[in-house]
Amino acid sequence: MPQRSTGSRVYLTFVGLALAVAGAVFAALMWRSFQRAREVESWPVVPCFILRSEVEERQIDPNGAVERRFAVLYGYEWEGAPRESDLIKLRGSMWSSKPEGVQSFIERYPEGSRQECRVNPANPAVAVLEPESKAPGYSIWFPLIFVVGGIGMMAGAWRK
Asked: Are residues 77 and 103 in the same domain?
């Protein structure tokens, strides 16, 4: 087998390093998201009352589609003090051009209904109606493939 030049070895090392670093960054972000979901799941559940449940609309471009999102305001009590929150999840409510997605939230959280929300005991001003998804933790293997592949590429570049 012909010997690789130093230039090709350096090139493969940089490509492998880029793959490994990109995979590590995405794995770290996914792990952080998974940890946040586990934390939210452990927050105490308290009763809450939906004060406002509506659809917000926006149109960024006059030629573009109208986007909608679910806007909610609910009240809850924490340690004897009344509080309010407008978060469905920690990330908030996403904008969508599909009206049926927003309508499902309106039906699930109608104005005047009693629900349960999770309250952050470290910061009771933060409460959510729904816990976060733990899916990133179950999918973390995918970016780790890039880490292993990048390390393998770097090792292979310098193998005799």
From this structure: yes
The number of domains in the chain is 2
Q: Are residues 49 and 107 in the same domain?
A: yes
pLDDT score of 150 more than 60: yes
Determine the pLDDT at residue 23.
96
Residue positions counted in the chain:
160
